[in-house]
Amino acid sequence: MIRDDWVTVITSEILDVRDGTHDSPKYISNSNHPLVTSKNLKGGDLDLSNVKYISKNDFNEINKRSKVDIGDVLFAMIGTIGNPVVIKKEPHYSIKNIGLFKNTFKVINSEFLKYFLDSYNLYNQLVKRELLKGTTQKFIPLGHLRKLEIPLPPIPEQQAIIAKIETLFSDLDKGIADLKTAQEQLKIYRQAVLKKAFEGELTKKWREKNIMTSSFEYLTQLSKKRFDNVSDKKSIYHKKISHNFKFKQDNNTPTWSSGTLDKLVYIAARIGWRGLKKSEYTEKGPLFLSVHSLNYGKYVDYSKAFHLSLERYNESPEIQLKEGDVLLCKDGAGIGKIGIIKNLPYKATVNSSLLIIRGMEVLGQEFLYYLFSGPDLQSIVFERITGSATPHLFQNDIRKFELSIPPIEEQHQIVREIETRLSVCDKLEQTITESLEKSNSLRQSILKKAFAGKLLNKAELEKCKQDKDYEPASELLKKIKAENTKQ
């Protein structure tokens, strides 16, 4: 129930609701006519850093029906629905897949409208009234944008509600900013821990108390053993692992070695799957892992895997997984993500976006996991992300990856030292995440009270009623209807 001086209105009754083009104009580089899409609406503002450009002719054609003006509100119609933005600066762009609310009758404040479009009140309406369409990608048709229900208070009350929301949000935003700063500082601390770990700093005192065979001596023996164990001495040079890996005594830590991963450990991937299609996926059978299984912490999540036939699985013995393998995503948006194969439930293989690293008798699986999570590899990943539209790690990047190699016993101790420190980070991270979720819930609670007419106290409401422009919202609607009748 809303108060007597409020009314529930349909968007088309008080606004001119349009949308931008849904076609795909030809993008051109030597143009100064931007095309803003739903992806450019972020955090209540326009992000034009990755905007594309179109011809003057396409620009003018789109703007014939959906020219954006100051005071208009933009609303993403596809993908991440919403992200409303109030236009405050003179715009010079066309729009695509964006709803356009033009405040023709001036009975609703644009900021008030934006806050409503950003609230759970709207989201619940979209769900309950089944206003969203699409399966793989949700969208809201223009016709449905025109029939949204909005609670409309008198204009002075709208202004007072906006002022109170902004005051409350200002305090909330400061707290959120502090939490996000803490999150970033934790990321920096994590990388600092990993950097020190692989430089030998975390186990310096441990080494003083523990005598062991140096990794240089161990690798020297391993190289000889691998050579001696192969009957065909010519073929060994073509194997994924062999005796002729590169290593030397580490300059900084005498019991360590330094070298590259090539020939030292097992590295494998498949470039393609001979036209494998989704229609070939099976209900049961060997697991077919992708980057989606690497989103859930240190260990691979098998529940996110597809299945394929045993015949397909047997095509590539070199990428059939074993317990303790480490998977690294080398392509696309998930590049750099890592996971360990633990408690492998069944036969399994990987798609072409994943690389397998098997530490053999040289590098422990958890040591490898943290090594690849550390700043040395992740800096390579960052270079690829920023330097290419389709980021990619090549097998050679991993084969030639330079690292320091501690003795196996010290690798285990390094992992313990890392996890002791990062477990504290994990707890802090969880606390921050929960606090951010509470902040978002509080933000929505404020908006819910605002659009139920319960945000302002009695004194604030009385002040609104004393305003010279105060009149019930029903009177505003009458004026709109009278104006429409004249036209």
Q: How would you describe what is shown here?
A:
The chain has 487 residues and is an alpha+beta fold. The protein has three domains: 7-153, Adenine-n6-DNA-methyltransferase TaqI, Chain A, domain 2; 155-211 and 418-470, no CATH class; 261-406, Alpha-Beta Complex (Adenine-n6-DNA-methyltransferase TaqI, Chain A, domain 2). It has 15 helices and 21 strands. It has helices at 11-14, 56-66, 110-117, 120-128, 142-145, 155-197, 204-209, 215-228, 310-314, 365-373, 375-387, 395-399, 408-451, 458-465, 473-486; strands spanning 7-10, 16-19, 34-37, 41-42, 45-46, 52-53, 73-76, 82-86, 94-96, 98-102, 149-152, 247-249, 257-260, 266-268, 287-289, 306-307, 326-329, 338-340, 348-350, 354-358, 402-405. It has a four-stranded antiparallel β-sheet with strand order 2-10-7-8. Strand 17 and strand 18 form a beta hairpin. The longest helix has 44 residues, at 408-451.
